[in-house]
């Protein structure tokens, strides 16, 4: 899997999305947007879910799980899509970078965006707010399948995220997706080069197999 992740890291989400489409797979994590322009991440998903806190006066820390996240992982946090309070900020970013975590994808909100951007940490979320998660949400569980707008993310699936958004690649399909996405990327580069050299776009697309760019004979 390490070699596959390295290959996918060299690709962008549009090429990988096209590869997933060609296999009838839905991988886009809808509504998730880049919060650090130019940052990109690719790695195995470490899943985390939150739940609303119950009644009671006791202080509820949002969560302490990052020390257990393996280096090279991408943290995928599910707050049920609730963006009214945060699940990530500058302190967790410092810990994540120290632990070798590759990035974070939130089905929820982040804060401290200025500090996160200054750190260059790959952060992607469905929302942004300054409201703390303390005493509002708490850790539900880690290592379980999470649902991001109807798309399931399992521990060990591959996450790829860049300025165009975030997507999940089922682990069992990762090698084939990488193969197809590399062919998509190569096809688009050939078309771009031909157009830059003076070719008509329609002719270049026809010549280089734009309709099925993932095919080995494209």
UniProtKB/TrEMBL annotation:
Any Pfam family from its record, for instance, is: RraA-like
**GO MF term set:** 4-hydroxy-4-methyl-2-oxoglutarate aldolase activity; metal ion binding; methyltransferase activity; oxaloacetate decarboxylase activity
According to UniProt, the name of this protein is: Putative 4-hydroxy-4-methyl-2-oxoglutarate aldolase
| Signal sequence annotation | none
Look up the record and name the cofactor or cofactors this protein needs: Mg(2+); a divalent metal cation
Residues binding substrate: 89-92, 111
The highest taxon in the source lineage is Bacteria
| Residues that span the membrane, as ranges | none
Q: What does this protein do?
A: Catalyzes the aldol cleavage of 4-hydroxy-4-methyl-2-oxoglutarate (HMG) into 2 molecules of pyruvate. Also contains a secondary oxaloacetate (OAA) decarboxylase activity due to the common pyruvate enolate transition state formed following C-C bond cleavage in the retro-aldol and decarboxylation reactions.
- UniProt xrefs under Gene3D superfamilies: 1.20.5.3070, Ribonuclease E inhibitor RraA/RraA-like
Q: Which family does it belong to?
A: Belongs to the class II aldolase/RraA-like family.
Q: What is its EC number?
A: 4.1.1.112, 4.1.3.17
**What's its catalytic activity?**
4-hydroxy-4-methyl-2-oxoglutarate = 2 pyruvate; oxaloacetate + H(+) = pyruvate + CO2
Q: Which organism is it from?
A: Lentzea aerocolonigenes (Lechevalieria aerocolonigenes)
Q: Which UniProt keywords apply?
A: Magnesium, Metal-binding, Methyltransferase, Transferase
* PANTHER family noted in UniProt: 4-HYDROXY-4-METHYL-2-OXOGLUTARATE ALDOLASE 3-RELATED (PTHR33254)
Q: Which GO terms describe its biological process?
A: methylation
> How does this protein assemble?
Homotrimer.
Question: Where along the chain is Mg(2+) bound?
Answer: 112
């Amino acid at each position: 899997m390490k070699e596959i992740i390295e290959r996918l890291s060299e690709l962008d989400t549009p090429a990988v999305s096209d590869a997933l489409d060609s296999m009838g797979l839905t991988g886009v994590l809808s509504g998730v947007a880049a919060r650090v322009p130019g940052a990109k991440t690719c790695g195995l998903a470490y899943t985390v879910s939150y739940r609303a806190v119950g009644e009671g006066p006791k202080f509820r820390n949002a969560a302490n799980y990052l020390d257990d996240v393996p280096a090279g992982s991408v943290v995928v946090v599910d707050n049920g899509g609730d963006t009214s309070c945060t699940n990530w900020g500058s302190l967790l970013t410092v810990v994540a970078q120290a632990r070798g975590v590759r990035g974070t994808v939130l089905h929820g909100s982040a804060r401290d965006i200025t500090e996160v951007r200054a750190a260059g940490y790959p952060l992607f979320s469905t929302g942004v707010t300054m409201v703390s998660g303390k005493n509002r949400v708490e850790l539900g569980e880690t290592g379980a399948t999470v649902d991001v707008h109807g798309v399931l993310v399992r521990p060990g699936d591959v996450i790829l995220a860049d300025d165009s958004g975030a997507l999940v690649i089922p682990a069992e399909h990762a090698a084939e997706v990488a193969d197809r996405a590399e062919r998509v990327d190569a096809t688009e580069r050939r078309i771009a080069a031909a157009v830059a050299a003076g070719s008509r776009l329609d002719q270049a697309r026809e010549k280089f197999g734009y309709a099925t760019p993932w095919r080995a004979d494209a």
